[in-house]
Amino acid sequence: MRIIVDAMGGDNAPEAPVKGALQAVKEYGVEVTLVGRGEDILEVLRREGLDEVPAGVSITHAGQVVEMCDNPATAFKEKKDSSLTVGLNLLKSGEGDAFVSAGSTGALLAAATLLVKRIRGIRRAAMAPVVPTGGGGAVLVDCGATAEGTPEFLLQFAFMGSYYAEHVLGRPEPKVGLLNIGAEPSKGTSLQQEAYKLLQKAGEEGRVNFVGNVEAREAVEGAVDVIVADGYSGNIFLKTMEGAGLFLGREIKKMFLRNVRSKLAALLVKDGIRDFKKLMDAGEVGGTALVGIAKPVIKAHGSSNDYAMKNAIRQAVEFARSGIIEDISDNVEHMRLPVKPASAGTENGGA
Amino acid sequence: MRIIVDAMGGDNAPEAPVKGALQAVKEYGVEVTLVGRGEDILEVLRREGLDEVPAGVSITHAGQVVEMCDNPATAFKEKKDSSLTVGLNLLKSGEGDAFVSAGSTGALLAAATLLVKRIRGIRRAAMAPVVPTGGGGAVLVDCGATAEGTPEFLLQFAFMGSYYAEHVLGRPEPKVGLLNIGAEPSKGTSLQQEAYKLLQKAGEEGRVNFVGNVEAREAVEGAVDVIVADGYSGNIFLKTMEGAGLFLGREIKKMFLRNVRSKLAALLVKDGIRDFKKLMDAGEVGGTALVGIAKPVIKAHGSSNDYAMKNAIRQAVEFARSGIIEDISDNVEHMRLPVKPASAGTENGGA
Predict the structure, then answer these.
(1) Which residue of A5, A152, B84, B170 lies most exposed, with the fewest beta carbons within 10 A?
(2) Which stretches does DSSP call E strand in A38-125?
(3) How much is the pTM?
């Protein structure tokens, strides 16, 4: 297994991707191709005390870097020698099994969609992070790849999320819930109401384990394994969780810093605090899978350090080994709406 | 000041509303009219050791109760002698200054809209809870009164939320943010994109302090005083926060229950834990204001205990005293889109 890593993507590049890759090679016995400015990568290796490129690591030079100011939709075309474009072309041509980048989400999504392409029959790729919940985590799909959804997109997200939860989280017959503001099928906007009908039908036919609408509170508490949402709502859900974790984390810190007694208390529950921080730390998961793309692509958090990058590479290995893409390809006929003349697959959902 | 209280609404009725009302009369010097089954209300008073109806409290008998199984849209018409209908009619006819209920949200909203009516020119009433944030709380408007929004609804929510933040939270020139998935005006669905334009224009004209899009994470961290959202998204935001609070609260409890050392730690930060719980407790705020209705209406949480009901009554007093409804009425012309023939105010937003 060989993972292609964008050495120039993210706030801490090239240090974090290069060091994360070195750790992953050691820890998981995987091979890594680092893509980016050769001299910058070698410089990081030298600072790590390595005068030669170590076994399991190879470097592919790419002289350009996609910056945050570049137009995400066109960056990969305008910068053909960027680590993003070169890396994804390696993936496309089979010179690696998965691609990991901590660079711009929009640019990665556009480039993956247009270079590597979607799985045939999939209308939209989706971002599918694993979010911490009371049930040991759930797959949220989509969290922002496409702001505006259609019922058919949501149906496909449900299938793709199911395969991900089954293969990567090890949940047999994962429970799929539609993120909504109440339990009844009539709840939500017309998008949720129409998606509910499609999901219910798929559930009745035994093709997906649809358990109905799930309210945000119950989703956080762990009611389902897969949370289906349009990109806008999924992003609100994800970012609210992140914000609440940061906000409450700070309040807890304040609680422990109040006085001598509270500082002593902090010492007594040191391990507990460490585990609590770990629970809320995006770096533990590593990154977010782009589901629906024809080959495995992982978006690591922009602020990833080497530990987070190592975990994102581990996640890429799991994704590539899982057989999810094969599952989606084999079953895509079940995920499509019957094609209606002149209206299929439009932004109005054809429902 | 006289507050009308639905004595039959909520999971803990009639105990919680009656006891909360007694406490509010004592603590805030306010008068309360309890509406509901006379014998049930008197029974609670007797259990509280009161053989007579105490000073400041009056009872208006209403023989019916709106139940969760009633159709929310029509319950107030079908049960004309319900505490909901009788209470709102008292409010309408001026026999009280505000109405508080812990009963069904949908039924309360429909009844308030159709009996008490909206402020002239306001397209939709909205639920405007104060949510805990790193900035000491923010007004979220809407959190679920209307699932599907239009740009004009969101413009009006921004104004109404501003008045609420200014008068009730004491924030001069409150910062208004549009809940979105990125900072740029092009982010989000067409609803957010169109609402952004209206809000930007209102901001440029100095009519509202619009600071742009606000991501969910920054909203929780306290970036703005007013979070503007359609009812669906606002509900996802609110319920995700509630869920995260419950989930993390449980994890913290686990941390303190681990062993003897951690239990000792819990004793040392007892006050801190109490304050932390208070921060996340919906009962501290009491209830959610229905803004846009011609008279003050407060929805208390369905699971309110007497303490939460007392706080909801306090909130009703603040709402009634604030002059928000007068402010909205006086300025409603600024909140309306120019009427276009045949398209104004439709569900498509006329934008």
Answers:
(1) B170
(2) 57-61, 98-101
(3) 0.90
